[in-house]
Design a protein that fits this description.
Helices cover 0% and strands 51% of the residues. It has strands spanning 34-37, 44-47, 52-55, 60-63, 66-69, 81-86, 89-94, 101-109, 115-118, 126-130, 134-144, 149-159, 166-169, 177-185, 190-198, 204-211, 214-221, 225-229, 234-243, 249-253, 257-259. The relative contact order is 0.10.
């Protein structure tokens, strides 16, 4: 297998209209052997990468005498959650509920982004609470039995007078819609790095700059752009980590820049 020295992060891209892929990460010794130890077993065994066998019929990976069943990632639907109000009472119901999933809801203060009320995960997709005076966002969660989870803001709610809550909109503007990135060279040493996304709440971008494969510097920004001037020759990689109070995150990098310093 390919050798990756001193790294804790792997990035790969896959583009297709319909397909499945499996990621296998192994730790190998200097002779390219993988050491396996079964649970509660006294002995260990060593295999090669070529000994890893995938069975497309049974959907399993075999490693010598060890067989690992594979399950595809599930796709959850939070598009059909109906949110209604009656006085100060708020109710939400996921109309595409399944028995093998569990559901939870958070009521979030719109101004401070803090959770003021939350429910535990439950098999029932129905949620009800009293909305205090103020402006809020309702966030829905869905979780499978293997721990896979999805969440989204599903409604913006306002209780201006204190005695009547109303659904202002579906809250979709508070869910991050990542669109991509652009790179612009301003002069010989200066570049503008831009991140394109739709989002109507506060966010943070942490920029990481690597020189010749090693860490160089880090910067934080509440804006969508970074203008940076390189002053030392080298091959630079600019990466960024976009996060929001809603729990959204995107981690990407720009193409390598070879700055000669001429």
């Amino acid at each position: 297998m390919g050798l990756l020295d001193t790294t804790t992060t792997l990035k790969f891209d896959m583009h297709c209209s319909s397909g499945s892929y499996i990621t296998v990460i192994t730790i190998e010794d200097e002779n390219e052997y993988i050491e396996l130890t079964q649970k509660e077993a006294a002995e260990t065994m060593k295999i090669k990468e070529s000994d890893i066998i995938y069975d497309s019929i049974s959907k399993t990976i075999s490693l010598d005498t060890i067989s690992i069943p594979l399950k595809p990632r599930e796709h959850f639907d939070l598009q059909n959650v109906v949110v209604q109000t009656n006085g100060t009472i708020l109710t939400a119901d996921n109309l595409t509920a399944r028995e093998d999933l569990s559901y939870a809801y958070y009521l979030i203060d719109k101004l401070t982004a803090t959770t003021i009320l939350k429910s535990d995960y439950a098999e029932s997709p129905v949620f009800s609470c009293t909305v205090p005076q103020g402006e809020y966002l309702l966030k829905a969660y869905v979780k499978s039995k293997n721990g896979q989870r999805k969440s989204a803001i599903i409604a913006e709610i306002a209780n201006v007078s204190g005695d009547e809550a109303t659904v202002v909109n579906d809250g979709s503007v508070y869910n991050l819609n990542y669109k991509g990135q652009t790179l612009e060279q301003i002069d010989e040493s200066t570049y503008k790095f831009s991140v394109d996304f739709d989002y109507s709440w506060n966010f943070n971008i942490k920029w990481y700059i690597y020189k010749n494969g090693g860490y160089y510097t880090t910067m934080n920004s509440s804006g969508r752009d970074l203008t940076y001037s390189f002053d030392e020759p080298g091959n630079y990689t600019v990466m960024y980590y976009l996060t929001t109070p809603n729990g959204d995150n995107e981690f990407w990098n720009f193409p390598i820049i070879n700055y000669t310093g001429d």
